[in-house]
């Protein structure tokens, strides 16, 4: 907040408090020139208005409220850039990167119950309480946890808090974000690969036209050939031209049979899993403009123990009832 805006905020807060106090003092005075208990000369529906002062209890409560407000604003932040005498804050508002956040969290852990930042203090307390629980789960295999209902519930909650913004609360994704329930995996669906993906993130990129000497005129035919690979309706008359365009270099990533390459994160073009849409229009758009997808790394933010539980939950979504890796690959 700028200094000018801070001054305006402080002025407005103090003006309201002082104005409230002056209003109370003004209301305590007899402004009508009548004795206490004397009729004000107003009667309505049989009720006569009497000149009575404000109730003492109400006036005292009003004064206590003002005193409380002054004390609160002196101790805690609430007036512009003034940080309060306790130097307390709800969160690290000046943190601009994850490294600074970790440093502040460690400082809060060292300070314990006297930590200045409330959020860091609560996170440190939560880590101390729940850390051993996560460690116990992390000592078990992902396949085992994928069949443990309690572990999956915890993993689901962690997923909803951190992953659902992109993949959806049902983990079925949306355009540009993979469906985690269909068994189609760009980088492989075995437990360790899923965990590696979550820990370190992924960066997938297909350049426009695959970075190949494919002309604009060849793109429609290439799209028809891609449609044919997954058994979709296509124009058979363009297959030969489309296959020729594909053989200019698309096979280097997607394979000669179009089944992709998990080592490169190249998608399988023969199934029905399309991250960016599998219609003719979307396929043409993907070929023409390319695609660039980034999944952030969660290792530093969540820690390996929590990622272990999320992995078990995600693995359970596409693995069979026995938790076999083959069902998720």
Automatic annotation (TrEMBL):
Q: Name one GO biological process term.
A: oxidative phosphorylation
Q: Which GO terms describe its molecular function?
A: electron transfer activity; heme binding; iron ion binding; oxidoreductase activity
List the keywords (alphabetical).
Cell inner membrane, Cell membrane, Electron transport, Heme, Hydrogen ion transport, Ion transport, Iron, Membrane, Metal-binding, Oxidoreductase, Repeat, Respiratory chain, Transmembrane, Transmembrane helix, Transport
Where is this gene product found?
Cell inner membrane
What cofactors does this protein use?
heme c
Q: Where is the Cytochrome c domain?
A: 150-230, 237-318
Q: How is the cofactor bound?
A: Binds 2 heme C groups per subunit.
Q: Among its keywords, does the record have Repeat?
A: yes
Name the GO cellular-component terms: plasma membrane
At which positions is heme c 1 bound?
A: 163, 166-167, 295
- Pathway membership, UniProt: Energy metabolism; oxidative phosphorylation
Q: Which coarse location class describes where this protein primarily resides? A: membrane
Q: Which residue ranges run through the membrane?
A: 7-26, 57-76
Instruction: Classify the source by domain of life.
Output: Bacteria
- Annotated heme c 2 binding lies at 206, 250, 253-254
List the Pfam families hit by this protein, alphabetically. Cytochrome_CBB3, FixP_N
| Role according to the record | C-type cytochrome. Part of the cbb3-type cytochrome c oxidase complex.
What PANTHER family does this protein's entry cite?
CBB3-TYPE CYTOCHROME C OXIDASE SUBUNIT FIXP (PTHR33751:SF1)
Q: Which family does the record assign?
A: Belongs to the CcoP / FixP family.
Assembly, in brief, is: Component of the cbb3-type cytochrome c oxidase.
Q: What is this protein called?
A: Cbb3-type cytochrome c oxidase subunit
Source species of the chain: Ferrimonas balearica (strain DSM 9799 / CCM 4581 / KCTC 23876 / PAT)
